[in-house]
Every structure is written in C-alpha cells, then in structure tokens.
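step: validate -> pass
step: tokenize input -> pass
step: predict -> running
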Amino acid sequence: MADSNGTEKTAESRARAIRPTGRRRKGPTRRRRVVTITVCALTSVVLLGGAGLGYAYFKLNGNLKGVDINAALGRDRPTNVDDGSMDLLVMGSDSRAGKNGDYGKDEGGARSDTAMIVHVYKGRKKASVVSVPRDTMIKRPDCSKDGKDVPGARRAMFNTAFEVGGPPCAVKTVESISGIRMDHFLEVDFTGFKKLIDALGGVEVTTSKAIDDNDSHLHLRPGKHTLGGEQALGLVRTRHGVPGGDGSDLGRIQLQQTFIKALMKQVQNVGVLTNPAKLYDIADTATKAVTTDTDLNSVSELTGLAKSLGGIGGENIDMVTLPVTYDTEDPDRVLPLTKQSQQVWDALREDKAIPKSAIKGSAGDKGGTDNYVK
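step: predict -> pass
step: emit ->
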C-alpha cells in the first residue's frame, strides 16, 4: 500500500486489535426472489432464485463444493444467537492454480483477495457489508489444515489465514476479531467469477475517467461500458491504473463495492425468471463457481437463501471498509483502529446500523477511487 498519515497508536496495540465477545444470528423464514448481496461472488447465490430448476436439481447439486466449517471449528466459537439476522463471510480467492494461472505463478496456496462480512438485518430488508483489507495486520488464531496444526501468529496479514488454513481458518480469524459468529461461508475464485459475469451477459458500469492497468488487463475510456468477465475481474482487481487512486488495496476495495451494486442491478434486470434456458445456464455456472459451508451445500439451501434476500436492493446496502490506519512499522500494511472497529462489530452484533462515527478518521474509505465508477 502507498504511504499515508498514520495515527498516534502503536503497531503493537493495533495488532492486538479486537477480541471476540460476540454472538451470532440465524436467519428467519425465506422469501421472495433472487438478489445478490456480495462480493465478487455472492453473485452466485443470486442466480439460484426461482422455481423451475427441479428438472436439473441433481446435476446442479453435483456441481457444488462444500466445507464443513462447524466440524472443523467445533465449540470454540462465538455464541450462536437466533435473533432473525444473519452473518456471512464472502471471499474471493486469488489462487493461481489451474486456469487461474493466467493471473500469476501458482505458489501452492490461495489467499483471500477479497473478504466481506455481510450482515443481513432482521426482516431481510437491508444489509451492511464490511470489507476487510487483505493487508490488515491482525492476531491470527491457531488453526489446522489437513489434520495438521497451524500455529497462530501475533502479527499476521489477514489474508494469510485462508492460505494457511483454508475456509475454516478464515472463518475462525473473522470470528476472533469481530466476536460475531458467521452463519455461512461463500467463496469464488478468478475463473468462476469471470464465467459468472459472462453468463449474466456482462455488467454495465460508467467510468468518470480513463482506467489503464496492464497488470489487471484493464483499459477503459471514460463513459458507459458493459464489462464481460475478463474486464469485470480486471476492475475488481485493479490498484494502479485508476487516476487519483493511491495504488493500494483500499482503493481497490472502493471499486469492488461500487461494482457489487452495479452487479446487483444487473441481476435484478437480467430477466432470467422468464427465460428457463438462461436461468439454467446461469445456475449451472454459479454452482460450479462457488465453494460454500456444508449448510449451504445444496441447490435447495442456496435457492432458499437467495429468495430470503430478495427484498434487498443496492440502495438498502451500507458498504464500509473496516476502520484502519497505516502501519507505522510498514506503510504497505494497515492496522485496525481499535475503538472504531469495535463500534462496527458492536453495531452488527446488536443488529443496528453502523454509526458514521465508526469510519471517521479511517484510511479505509480514502483510497481515492470512490467516484470513478458508478
């Protein structure tokens, strides 16, 4: 990340950050039709809405991959509280394995290129999304992978949790810093994201200035664009090609948040419910694109989740970045602002809106790219 002004607190106190004190919620009854709520991929859940998929149920079910988060983490988790709200951890994986090798060398592991905690409020009419910068320095808990213990670290980048311990460690890390139990987990990788956008017919965005980034293969003039999968992936990955941006992950997060709302609008307008062939194509692509927790690892569960989120539009989603400051020990890293971050987690735990004071003074919403795409 690029240099910026820090705050008076030390890196050590930031690294200790936020300790778990919280609880979680489970969702209420399912309702209404399809919508998307999240990152690079919550897109997938969206696409499963609608009745008419019975004839393809078993094929689509066979596409899904699930991870048993509950079994992996056991009882050492925040309290499970059923109050009608719901919390999901949505992640975009930056694995370079297989077809993802076009985006860099495969070094044997994947990190969380994108991470969002999605809180759906009781009544399923609105949601808050908290983006966690991948370069956030946190206290990573002890985890395990393939039956082997993975020691925790007092000062580790947030995105290493996924790398060393897969989805269970990513969930455990989020729960440890937030104190909130995650009801569900959803992940999509580069290739799955691209295919999903292409299956949707692209996503329309408007850029206010040119974007040129050779690293992410993205070149856009100012104006309206319908982005295919490759360009959409470039947009949510770009850091260096946006004029006025600071070249950091914080600027990239702002672009991702803008893209998600454009994606939601596209999903709601795509007309899949009146086109069974298109619906099946999108559902087939979506179910191949995602990895979920085992509680969501079926077409019926994903369809139910999508329907229950059907009352949420882009205008009813509050998107923020975890309050952070630049690390005085390493300007390419950030540290959680303890007081403000706790305000965010307390609000979600109590099923309340995130207060404006929580992001005051945070570097998280100052990446310089918030007005470049709409």
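step: describe -> Residues 1-53, 96-108 have pLDDT under 50 and may be disordered.
step: cleanup -> pass
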